[in-house]
Amino acid sequence: MSSRPLVSTENLSVRFARQGASDLVASRNVNLHIDAKETLGLVGESGSGKTTIGRALVRLIVPSGGTVRFDGQDVSHIRGGALTRYHRHAQMIFQDPFASLNPFHSVGHHLRRPLTRLRHLQGRKRQEALDELLTLVGLTPSSVFQEKYPHELSGGQRQRVSIARALAGGPSFIVADEPVSMLDVSLRAEILTLLESLQESRDLSYLYITHDLASARYLSHRIAVMYGGSLVEIATADELVQNPAHPYTKLLLSATPGSTHTGSLPEKMQGAPDLSADRIGCPFAPRCPSSMSKCTQMMPELLDVTTNHQSACFLNE
Ligand SMILES: Nc1ncnc2c1ncn2[C@@H]1O[C@H](COP(=O)(O)OP(=O)(O)OP(=O)(O)O)[C@@H](O)[C@H]1O
Ligand SMILES: [Mg+2]
After folding, report:
1. Ligand 1, atom 28: nearest CA belongs to which residue?
2. What's the whole-number average pLDDT of the chain?
3. Whose C-alpha in 53, 77, 116, 225 is 20 to 30 A from the C-alpha of 288?
4. CATH number at residue 160
């Protein structure tokens, strides 16, 4: 029996209009898939299009081109009730737990809303579900935490509320967009451990977006690397770190402090890539030490390096 992926994209593109310039292409023909109960890490420097892909997968934005599939169904352009039903299955956790919670609303309010909207729960049933959610993310006693407001919580507790909110509909897929980068270093491990245990107990798939290769490697089964809106390399986590094929990934790993290849990615390297719609070549060509003339004339496709490893570089041909 061939098992189909839980989430997949075909040539997913997201464009943003710019005044007086050609469109900005934040995601260009991206093909990826995430299996049930799998974590795909998504790494790349600031502005490479990671959040844009995450938002398109959970349909907070509409793709400009290509397809997003969930459990085989095309969800690229669904609206209204179909989109609300999709949001039971697919949710997002954001980087900044302060900005993503409304300071005027209690924890209970934040969680009752999706329980009502996505699961149509009311009264005692909804209260039971609320208690269960808070317990699940370690905010106990739930009767105390549901009355609290965001400013009364630590960063880690706020992120736990965001996680509980994402879980309210009973999802099977969560985009975790740099979920620990704004937290104290001392709190990061416990939030990552929580995400890991929820994956086990709730059979979750994650797209884990991060600048931090160490945590990507720790949490992810496979890792995808973005550059300039394109997916340039994807492989099992260990393979990517130990045997990178794409010149950009190699540069990232060599730029990582220490030789263990496990530190943080630089926020931004010299020279931002060209995201304009008229660009025709590889986004990395202007900075690539191995650049050839054809690299500026067409974008290489993702091709097999090994069975579980693809790289978009003419060097692999
Ligand atoms: N709503 C929008 N309108 C216009 N441009 C946008 C919009 N959202 C993102 N962009 C642009 O798309 C590109 C990719 O942005 P995105 O936020 O996806 O990158 P990222 O990889 O998540 O970066 P970071 O690591 O800083 O979070 C950037 O140039 C960004 O300015
Ligand atoms: Mg982002």
Report:
1. 47
2. 93
3. 53
4. 3.40.50.300
Does residue 1 fall inside a structural domain? no
Which residue's C-alpha comes closest to atom 18 of ligand 1? 49
| In the chain, % of residues over pLDDT 90 | 86
Please name the residue whose Cα sits nearest to atom 5 of ligand 1: 16
CA separation for the pair 113, 134 (Å, rounded)? 14
pLDDT at 164: 98
* CA 268 to ligand 1 centroid distance, Å: 13
pLDDT band at 267 (very low <50, low <70, confident <90, very high): very low
Measured from the Cβ of residue 52, the count of other Cβ atoms closer than 10 Å reads 25
Q: How many helices (H) and strands (E) does the chain have?
A: 10, 12
CA nearest neighbour of 15 among 282, 275, 288: 275
**Tokens linked to 52:** 């844009």
Indicate whether 2 belongs to any domain: no
Overall pTM surpassing 0.90 (yes/no)? yes
